[in-house]
């Protein structure tokens, strides 16, 4: 789940958050598959995941990354363009997430939202977020592990609020339990079909 990870090894914390985000995105991808199949997805689950990712990653994870990117650009100027693009992607992901959240909230409130609009919003969010995580994992984390100093990592840790509020932690805990149960069910169900 979220958190700043092990302060002695911030890269492990960063990777753990990415792994958790990727698992959540896979749940949303499964719901998109239901939309493609003409079935009704679990809009409540999708909204929970998107709301969590918007709140947690946009308030805690991405601000820390932005500081890390700034520090890394100072130490590795040749990476400045790639890092600037990743910072821009944080804004794009936030915007795509907000658009998706608005669609999901409207659907749950009883509004008619064209299926195509929902599909595009979900797919766009998944593609941007998934590619963003992959780029960071492949290119940024190895360089950050080599180039950033303990002082840089202290600045990264200070780049966002120290911890989520108790209400956010409670929501995250409920969401994590629900998602882990669904992931377990999905893994068990997939195994039975083969």
CATH superfamily: nmb1532 protein domain like
Helix content: over 70%
Which outline best applies?
A: elongated
Helix count, DSSP H or I runs of 4 or more residues? 6
What share of residues are in beta strands?
under 5%
Cα end-to-end separation: 30 Å
Sheet of most strands: none
Overview of this protein structure:
The structure is a single chain. By secondary structure, the protein is mainly α. The protein has a single domain, classed as Up-down Bundle (Four Helix Bundle (Hemerythrin (Met), subunit A)), CATH 1.20.120.520. The chain is 81% helix and 0% strand. It has 6 helices and no strands. It has helices at 10-36, 43-75, 80-108, 115-147, 150-157, 166-192. The longest helix is centred in the N-terminal third of the chain and has 33 residues, at 43-75. The chain is elongated and about 50 Å long. The model is unreliable at 1-7 and 187-194 (pLDDT under 50).
């Amino acid at each position: 789940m979220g958190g700043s990870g092990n302060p002695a090894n911030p890269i492990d914390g960063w990777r753990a958050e990415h792994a958790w985000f990727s698992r959540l995105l896979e749940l949303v991808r499964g719901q998109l598959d239901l939309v493609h199949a003409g079935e009704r997805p679990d809009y409540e689950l999708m909204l929970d995941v998107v709301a969590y990712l918007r709140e947690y990653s946009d308030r805690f994870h991405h601000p820390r990354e932005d500081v890390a990117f700034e520090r890394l650009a100072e130490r590795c100027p040749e990476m400045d363009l790639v890092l600037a693009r990743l910072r821009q992607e944080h804004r794009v992901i936030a915007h795509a997430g907000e658009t998706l959240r608005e669609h999901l909230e409207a659907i749950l409130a009883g509004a008619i939202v064209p299926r195509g609009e929902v599909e595009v919003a979900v797919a766009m969010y998944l593609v941007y977020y998934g590619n963003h995580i992959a780029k960071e994992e492949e290119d940024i984390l190895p360089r950050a592990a080599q180039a950033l100093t303990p002082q840089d990592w202290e600045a990264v840790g200070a780049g966002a609020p120290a911890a989520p509020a108790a209400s956010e932690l409670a929501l995250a805990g409920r969401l994590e339990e629900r998602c882990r149960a669904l992931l377990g069910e999905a893994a068990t169900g997939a195994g039975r079909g083969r």
